Amino acid sequence: MNAQAQWMQELKAKMSGEELESAIKDMKKNLLKGMIDRKVVISKAKQKNYDLANDVEVMLRDIKKQNNINTDEELIGALQSEGISLEEYKEQLKNNRMQQRFVGEEIGSKISVDNSEIMEYYKQHIEEFTKLPELSLNCIFLSKSNYNDPAELEQKAKTISAELSADNFVEIANKYSEIGSEENKAFLGHYKKGELDPKIEDAGFKLEKGKYSDWIETDNGWYILQLIEKSDATLVEYKDVSEKISTVIQNEKYQVEFKSLVERLKKDSFIKIYREDLF
After folding, report:
1. What is the dihedral of CA 74, 75, 77, 82, to 10 degrees?
2. Within this chain, do residues 254 and 228 fall inside the same structural domain, yes or no?
3. Domain-located, residue 145
4. Fewest CB within 10 angstroms: 8, 94, 161, 172, which?
5. 69-73, long-range: CB < 8 A, 24+ apart
6. Main-chain phi, psi angles of 141, to 5 degrees
7. What is the CATH number of the domain that holds 83?
8. Range of the domain at 44
């Protein structure tokens, strides 16, 4: 499936009507612009007369290895299933490598990142590098949908409360709880802050390890929670994300410089689009 067909499929899965039509129109414009930019760059790169035969063979070997393809025949078969010949594929690889080399020569020296930039990014995006508080909970749950008579639900809740202690929480949960699997009705799950019903989350974070809450009413039923474990928000250390940040900054600079390069090349190029609607 080519890129346009794949993106079209993804858009149709998420949207419909006028929203979908507008998104498809924008997608086609962006694809067309990308195609023009690529042709402009490759056209200029061809003037360099790079010798790329060996590069293409190395790329082919890597592709075969990554996809567990052992022979050229297997590769040809795989390409045919995608509607492309080996020679066409080699030409694509050649153009990709040509563009990569040309762009590297033109803007590579302009893309550098120093430690002060990395630290500044780290400070400005500190929330991205902060792990949210987390908690693991056991629970006993009674579903409102299982009781036509509220008095019956109230009586069962009283029975559970009378039998319950911190030491037998899991045992009582497996006996009475109406959530979870038959093997383990006690474990509610492990959650990051923001993933639970606010009432449950608030009560869970207030608990001490091993302790349990009073009954908590929610829209779908009643819960008693027991805290298994919780952790506070923690900041990921700078040294553990500096390399990742450097890559992000490099990519941002690359996009700016690449756009500038393409605009310069376009000024020296003749571009005419005959039928945009056909793309």
Report:
1. 150
2. no
3. yes
4. 161
5. none
6. -125, 135
7. 1.10.4030.10
8. 3-111+250-278
Q: Does residue 156 fall inside a structural domain? A: yes
What percent of the chain has a predicted confidence (pLDDT) above 70?
95
Q: Name which residue leads in pLDDT, 110 or 276.
A: 110
* Helix, strand or coil, per DSSP, at residue 69: coil
Quick one: tokens of 171?
Answer: 């045992």
Q: What is the pLDDT of residue 278?
A: 44
Residues 229, 136 contacting (CB under 8 angstroms): yes
Kind and range of the H or E run holding 189:
strand 187-192
Asked whether residue 140 carries a pLDDT value surpassing 60, the answer given is yes
Q: How confident is the model at residue 213 (pLDDT cuts 50, 70, 90)?
A: very high
Q: How far apart, in whole angstroms, are the C-alpha atoms of residue 1 and residue 256?
A: 30
Is the pTM here over 0.85, yes or no?
A: no
- On whether both 204 and 137 belong to a single domain, the answer is yes
Q: Residue 191: which CATH number?
A: 3.10.50.40
- Rounded to 10 degrees, the C-alpha dihedral 6/70/92/279 comes to -20
Mean pLDDT of 156-170: 94
CA triple 49-54-56, angle to 5 deg: 85
Contact 177, 164 (CB under 8 A): no
Integer Cα distance of 69 and 121 in angstroms: 42
Does some domain include residue 179?
yes
pLDDT tens per residue, range 11-66:
788 888 888 888 888 888 888 888 888 899 999 999 999 999 999 999 999 999 99
Token pair 């794949």 is at which residue?
6
